Amino acid sequence: MTRMLLSRVVLALTLIALAAPSADGQGPAPAALDPKAILESLERAFVSVAERVMPAVVHINATQKEQPREREGRDPRERMPAPERREFERRFREYFGEEFERFFRQRPPERRENRSQGSGVIVDKSGVILTNNHLIERADDIEVRLSDKRKFKAKVVGRDPKSDLAVLKIEGDAEFPVAELGDSDRLRIGQWAVAVGNPFGLDRTVTVGIISATGRQGVGVATYESFIQTDAAINPGNSGGPLVNLDGKVIGINTAIVSVGQGIGFAIPVNMARRVLPQLLATGRVTRGWLGVRIQPLTEDLARSFGTKEGDGVLVADVMPGSPAEAAGFKPGDVVLEFEGQKTPEVPDLQRAVADTPPGKTARVSVLREGRSETLWVKIGEMPSDEPVLASRGVERWGLTVQPITPDLARQLNLTADEGVLVSEVEENSPAARAGIRQGDAILEVNRRRVKDLRSFEEALGRTDQDALLFVRREGRSMYLVMKPEPR
User: Fold this and answer.
1) Annotation marks residue 259 as catalytic
2) What is the number of structural domains in the chain?
3) Can you list the residues of the chain whose pLDDT is less than 50?
4) How does pLDDT run across 145-155, given as a tens digit for each residue?
5) Which of 134, 334, 408, 441 is flagged as catalytic?
C-alpha cells in the first residue's frame, strides 16, 4: 500500500472515530471501532474491482511500418559518363572481385518499424474495444493481448482525433468479457478511482487514487477536453485503459499524464465516449455540428472594451464566408452569451455545445452586440473533416486514402450529400497513382457499383483482386479510370 493511500485510510479511520457517538448514559454504548475490519473491507472492495474489470482490459501493441529506406550513401556510378563508369567498375572489380555490388545500391533497403504499447477495454461481447486514438492512429498492424494471454489481430473500426478516442474490433469463436460503463456525469471530487492498464508494458497493473477534479480543460491532448483528473498512478502504457469506480464500472478512458508532476493524470469521461461510440461503430467517424466562427476568450481588457465582464461569454473574432454563422447574421465583435439556453463562459463551452448539436437543427444563440442583447437563429452545419479517414488494409494496398464527402464538400463538388468518397492522399508509384487518381478526386462508383459512403467503398474495393473500374468526378468533369492491383 502506497504512503499516499495509507494516509487516506488513516484519515478515513480517524473521521469514522470522530463521527461515532460517545456513551453519555443516555443510550447504548457505541460499538468498538475495529480498524482491521475496516481495512479488510476496503481491501475486499479493491480486490473485487480488479477481479471484475481485469478480464476486459487488453494490452495493445501498435506497429507502424515505415517505407523501405535506401542505405546511406549513393552509388557513385550514377553521375559518371559511360567511359569513366566502365573504367571505375574494372578497377573496383580488380580489388574486390565478387564483393563489388555489395558496396552499392544492390544491397537490400532497410525497413524500420515504430512500435507503441498501450491499453484498451472491451465494451461489447462481440469484441469491440475502446482505446485512445493517439495510440493507434498511424499503426499498420495492431495486436491485442487479453488477460488470458490470447492474442488477436485488431481492425480499426473508427477513430476520432478531436476526442482522442478510437474503436478496435477483434474476432473470436466465443463471446469476450466486457466491462460495464458507468455515468461520469455523477462523479464527485474525492470519490475512489481505480486505474487499470499496462504501464511500461507491465500487464494487468492496478493503481488506486481519488477523483481530484472534473471538467479539466487546456491539457492540450484533444480538441474537446473535459477531463477527469485523478491521482491514481497513470504512466506510459496506461493510455486507453479504463478508470473505474468501486462498483467496477468504467467512468473514464485514461489518456494523459503531466510529466513534470506526480499524482496528476487525466481520463476522458465515459459519457463522452458513449456519445462517440455509436457513430464510430456505424460510420468510422464522428459527425459534429459546425457554426463557422473563429472565437477567442473574453479577457478582462477585452470584456471592458465590449461592455461586459470577463467570463460572461466568448468573443467572435471572425465569421467564415459561406458558413451557417454568416447566413444567420453573426458579426465579428459579437459576444456569444448563450447557446440553446446554455451559458458559454469559456471557449470550450461553446465548442462542445455546437459540436453536440445535430447538423440541420436550428439553434437559438444569445449575443451581445454593441452593448445590446440580440437573439440569432442559426441552422447548424456539419463540421468539415480535417482528418483523412484511415482506410482498411484491403484498400491501403491500392495506395490511396479517402474521406467522407460532407454536405459542404458536396456543394463545392456539385454532388449530393450521400454520393461518393473524396481522395485525400495518393501514394507515389502506387496502383492509384499509376491509374491517374489525384488528390481531390471524388470516386462515385467502383466496378459499376455506386459508392455511397466509406463502408460501401471499402466493401467494393477491398474485396477484389481484379482490375478496379472507377468512375471519378474531377473539377466538374467525369471520367473512368482503371486501377490494376499489385500482387498481395
Assistant:
1) no
2) 3
3) 1, 25, 68-73, 105-107, 387-394
4) 998 889 999 99
5) 134
